[in-house]
Amino acid sequence: MITKKENIVEHILLLWQAEDYVRAMGDSEDVRTNRFLSEIRDMLYGEGIIVKGHTQVSLVALSELEQLHSELYATDATYKAAWLALLPQITAFKAKTDEPAMSDMKACLTFLYDIMLLRLRKQPISGATLTTQQQVSSLMRTLALAYREKQTI
Question: What region does 54 belong to: left with phi over 0, alpha with psi -120 to 50, or beta?
């Protein structure tokens, strides 16, 4: 399991994938016998989000990522420029979702998660989408590294 400290972005995406897996597999032996998946199942039921939504664990990590994004946006000109270059694509992506008011960081993570699902389903991905994915991934790498550095201080 990737820890939040190691890579907060991959940690959140892994939690989302586990949530979806548990929802799809229900109370299967695979879920019952895997400690991590069993804990995710318990959280989904305990938090009343077995059908839809994210666990508090992933929401807390997302909140930390959003805070770091705000800090870097305010203090790092290179980060700010990269974000502003990406913002039109993120805004367009959010407009196409069933949650257009989602936070910018949630939109970035949702975008990356959706790309992963498209690849798993072996569905085509446009060149423009792949270009946006590279931009989002680069920004998320910057955030993950900054988060890791901040945790070691």
Answer: beta
Mutual orientation of helices 104-120 and 77-95 as an angle, nearest 10°? 60
As given in the structure block, the two tokens for residue 130 are: 């792949």
The model's pTM: 0.94
State how far the Cα of 84 lies from the Cα of 39, in Å rounded to an integer.
38
* Cβ-count burial 21-57 (b if 16+ within 10 Å, e if not): bbbeeeeeeebeebeebeebbebbeeeeeeeeebbeb
Q: Report, as ranges of residue numbers, the positions in the chain whose pLDDT lies below 70.
A: 153
The answer to whether the CB of 32 falls within 8 A of the CB of 78 is: no
